[in-house]
Design brief:
By secondary structure, the chain is α+β, with helices and mostly antiparallel strands. Helix content is about 35%, strand content about 30%. The protein is built from eight helices and eleven strands. Strands 1, 6, 7, 8, 9, 10 and 11 form a seven-stranded antiparallel sheet that branches. Strands 2-5-3-4 form a four-stranded antiparallel sheet, with helices on one face. Strand 9 and strand 10 form a beta hairpin. Helix 3 crosses helix 4. It is globular and about 50 Å long. Magnesium ion binds next to loops.
């Protein structure tokens, strides 16, 4: 059984065919995943209040049912340092197709990974783990397995990545918290099994992993028709 808040969010998203980022973030935090601090604002004074509560610098992202890939429309601005830059960004976002708000999030650092799932007609949820960020299509450094994963599957997937050395810290970069990454992958696999009747695909890209934790920085949930 899905949590009631989650079924409500999924029901509300049905008309768009996908779950807006703030709602997707909420679903993942309800299931115990770590996310950066965030909130949504529509007006300038509201945006400034959110950013101060989170603490500058912040990231601003367009929230619009018409925009699935936010960077493609310059809908993500990282490293915003003050109210003026924040409000300028909000004014620009207002002119983007379907604007309903601006997500303001804490800036986080770490290695950018992707954790995804696609519902295969024959095999059910197929889990993908790899090197993420906006370059995901360029590296194509990913491993795939059928859900539900075992812990051994999760470890083997990480071991298959060409960039696996980066996880352990490479040339001065700090090693990431592997226990947190494994837990994130296992919890993700379980959640995808729970959601398999309603969800077509999910992309957590990026998941940012550092020495302390793995945070879901962007979540895209596409729903079944
Ligand atoms: P989209 O995938 O829709 O274009 P994302 O939310 O993934 O948008 O943002 C694009 C990129 O911006 C991410 O890959 C990441 O590098 C950066 N970014 C987004 N949110 C944050 C954040 N909270 N902290 C640091 N960097 C971020
Ligand atoms: Mg993304």
């Amino acid at each position: 059984m899905l949590k009631k808040d989650v079924s409500d969010l999924l029901r509300k998203s049905k008309k768009w065919g996908w779950v807006l980022e703030p709602d997707a973030q909420r679903i993942f935090s309800l299931y115990g995943f770590e996310t950066p601090k965030y909130d949504v604002a529509v007006h300038g004074d509201q945006a400034a209040a959110v950013a101060r509560r989170i603490g500058y610098p912040v990231v601003a992202k367009i929230v619009s049912p018409a925009i699935v890939h936010k960077s493609d429309v310059q809908g993500v601005v990282v490293g915003i340092r003050d109210d003026q830059a924040l409000i300028q960004t909000l004014e620009r976002f207002r002119r983007i197709d379907g604007f309903v708000g601006m997500l303001i999030a804490e800036m986080v650092r770490g290695l950018e990974l992707i954790i995804g799932s696609k519902n295969d007609l024959q095999f059910g949820p197929m889990i993908l783990v790899g090197m993420g960020g906006v370059g995901v299509e360029i590296y194509k450094d990913v491993a795939l397995r059928m859900a539900p994963l075992t812990l051994r599957d999760a470890d083997n997937m990480l071991g298959e990545l060409t960039a696996r050395k980066l996880l352990a810290g490479y040339r001065g970069s700090e090693p990431i918290n592997l226990a947190a990454l494994r837990k994130t992958i296992m919890d993700f696999s379980r959640l995808m099994m729970d959601l398999k009747d309603v969800v077509e695909s999910v992309d957590l890209n990026p998941v940012m992993c550092n020495a302390t934790s793995c945070l879901i920085v962007d979540a895209r949930i596409m729903l079944k028709k």
